[in-house]
Structure formats: structure tokens, C-alpha cells
Amino acid sequence: MRMVVLCGGESSERDVSLASGWSVAGALLERGHEVVLVDPAAAVPVLAGPLRPGDAVGGVAVAKEPPSLSDRWELRRRTHAALTGGPVLELLRGAELVFVALHGGWGEDGHVQALLEMAGVRFTGAGSAACAAAWHKGRAQMVLGAAGVPVAQRVLWRPGAGEVPAGVARLVAAGPVVVKPVADGSSVSVHRADSLAELTRLVRPAQTVAGEQARDDELMVEPFLPGREFTVAVVGDQALPVVEIELTTPLFDYTAKYQPGAVREVCPARVPEALASRLQERALLAHRALGFGSDAYSRTDFRCDAAGEPVCLEVNALPGLTATSLLPLAATGAGWAYAGLVQRIVDLATR
After folding, report:
1. Which of 211, 253, 217 is nearest to 68 (CA)?
2. Which of 136, 152, 146 has its CA nearest to residue 289?
3. Which of 145, 154, 271, 346 could form a disulfide with 222 if both were Cys (CB 3.0 to 4.6 A apart)?
4. How far apart are CA 204 and CA 211, in angstroms?
5. Rounded to whole angstroms, what are the CA distances from 252 to 160, 163, 256, 257, 259?
6. DSSP, residue by residue, 9-48
7. How far is 259 from 15, CA to CA, in rounded Å?
8. Is 47 left (phi over 0), alpha (psi -120 to 50) or beta?
9. Do you find a cis peptide bond into 176, omega within 30 degrees of 0?
10. Closest Cα to residue 249, out of 187, 174, 311?
């Protein structure tokens, strides 16, 4: 097939997405496809191609820090221009399939998918509605809880709007909490706080560093869960083996996810069969509750409470596909090679 791989983009996960894109391109070439690699946020969007089977592909390393806020405004402007007209849009329309390897931001909240749908472009992964449903963690957890998936108590908070909400104060008084953006990925800006003073210091919308604009993002505050951490990928209608994330730090943050050696990931997880089955069943339930169909894939993250009961943290509509990402690790546990996983994602979109 003639395929375009969309990667990079304007989000805080830009570097992760670029690494995913190059990895996916290599796998598609291995499977006999023709590939053009496109970063809609780049000054020159076509990164490589047309590449044909046998061509060598490069790669990128994931930086220790996500792109700065000031850089992201320009990246977003370029992305919008590229996807709404001109040669990039024509390139997408001319492809037999677009492999969406974008993570976070417009690539995962449904914006890009909606643009592709309106342009009549066929693409991999979930559609715009399911992506939007999963992206806002607060609304997603309401849906998941109603569907029977255990979720944590949570309070949404916009710090610049005034005093600390009573609900937030109650959560902090009961024990440590985790605070994170209600809409972001790759564990960007996730913090643990043990007191109200520490929490307000972490989230204070102070004037930003290096002249960037002050941020006033909506946050979600939830209890810190002290137990083991797991993730379960779903591809089509199949839940893959459970992965356990063995942490050396309190939280699985951006650095831990993408810097080699920062964390140990075990697949299949060394857990009783009953727990593994329960995690897989809940991942499938979460996948379907948010509108992911049999043509899509997702990854659901869990952390156990003090009693050892797994609680759903979030559902990822476009999980990472880098060499060190969790979905490829789960695929390996299922006996799938990396190129086989990528081909399965293609097959879901074209059947």
C-alpha cells in the first residue's frame, strides 16, 4: 500500500511521536509498503519518502524534557496550516492509508481525526469521537465509572480561578494526592503532593520561566494509590498480556517513561491468573465504554489501592509505538513481532 505516517505534531509528546513515526515507517517497509513520513508541524513537513521496501530508515531519541510552551504555539500554527490545505493535505488524500503515529494534543484529542474524516482520508486507530471521549480524563472517568470500571475519587480544579476547592482540601487532608493536567499525555506535569502547601506551590500559575505565558490549565486531583502499577493494551477485540511497571520513583512520569533504565517493565506481569484476567476484562470494558470499536486499539493504565484492588487511571487512544513503548512490549508478550503489531493495526483499519 501507499501509506503516509503522520508523526511529530504540536503536543508535549512531540519527540515521542517522532520516535514512534520512524519506528512505524521501518515496520511498514519491512511489510512491503511504500511510506512517506510527514510531520505536519515541521517547517518542511515531509521528513522522508517516498521510501520503498529495502530503504534504510533513521530514528530519533526522546528528549529528557517535552517541548516548551512557547515552541508549541508555533508548532500548532504549522500543524493547522498543513492539515487544512496545501501539499500536505493533498499528500494525505493521495495515500491509500494514513498511519496516525501522533500522540497527545491534537493528535490524540480528536482534532486531527476529525480533519481526516472531513477530508475523506482513511486512517488507523480510533475516530474523532472516541479520541475526544478518552482525552479529557475527568469526563472519561465519569463514563468509565458508570460502565462499571473502578476509578479513583477525583476533583477538577482550575488554580487561577480562586481559592482551593473544598473537595481538593478534603482529598489532601486524607493523604497524599496526585495532580495532573486533565487533558495531556505521557505523564507530562504529573506530581505527587503530601500537603496543601506543597500542592498549591506545584500548581500555582506563576509567571512562567523564560518569558513563556502563564498557564491556567484545568487540573485533576486524585488520591495517590500506593499499590502496583499495570497497563493493558487492547488491539481490536483482543486484550494483550498484562504489563507491570516496576517503579523506582513514586510516579511513572515523563522521564521514567522514555529514558532507558529509569523503570522496569515486566510482561507478562507476575501476578495471579485471576488478577490478570480481571485487568484484561476491565481494559476491554474501558475500551468499549469510550467508543473504541473493533477497528481501533488502546492502552488502559491501572494502579492498585492499598488493598491491592486495581483502579483505572486513564485510557490512551494512541499509545506510544517507540522501541521502548508499552504497547510493543505487550505485543511481544503475545508472541507478535513489532512489524506484526504494526501490520495488525493496518489490517484493523482496512478490513
Report:
1. 211
2. 146
3. 154
4. 16
5. 26, 29, 6, 7, 11
6. -SSTTHHHHHHHHHHHHHHHHHTT-EEEEE-TTSSS-EEE
7. 12
8. alpha
9. no
10. 187
CA distances (Å), origin 248, targets 120, 202, 229, 311: 46, 22, 12, 20
Q: 155-223 has which CATH code?
A: 3.30.1490.20
Confidence of residue 251 (pLDDT cuts 50, 70, 90): low
**What is the pLDDT at residue 319?**
95
Q: Is 310 helix (H, G, I), strand (E, B) or coil?
A: strand
pLDDT in tens, 102-118: 999 999 999 999 999 99
Asked whether 37 and 49 are in contact (CB, 8 A), the reply is: yes
Residue listed under C-alpha cell 496516525: 100
Give the phi and the psi of residue 180 in degrees, each rounded to 5: -155, 160
**CA-CA distance, 108 to 183, in Å (whole number)?**
10
Q: What is the DSSP letter of 49?
A: E
Residue entry with cell 515523563: 254
Residue with cell 497527545: 104
**CATH architecture assignment, domain 134-150+225-339:** 2-Layer Sandwich (3.30)
Q: C-alpha grid cell for residue 157? A: 480544579
Taking residue 264's Cβ as centre, other Cβ atoms within 10 Å add up to: 10
Report pLDDT for 6.
98
Instruction: Read off the pLDDT band of 252 (50, 70, 90).
Output: low
Rg for the chain (alpha carbons), in Å?
A: 20
Extents of the domains making up the chain:
2-123, 134-150+225-339, 155-223
Quick one: angle between helices 69-83 and 87-94, nearest 10?
Answer: 60
Closest CA to 106 of 159, 28, 189, 39: 39
Q: Does domain 2-123 match CATH 3.40.50.20?
A: yes
Cell of 187: 505523564
* Identity of the residue numbered 60: V
Average pLDDT over residues 31-46: 96
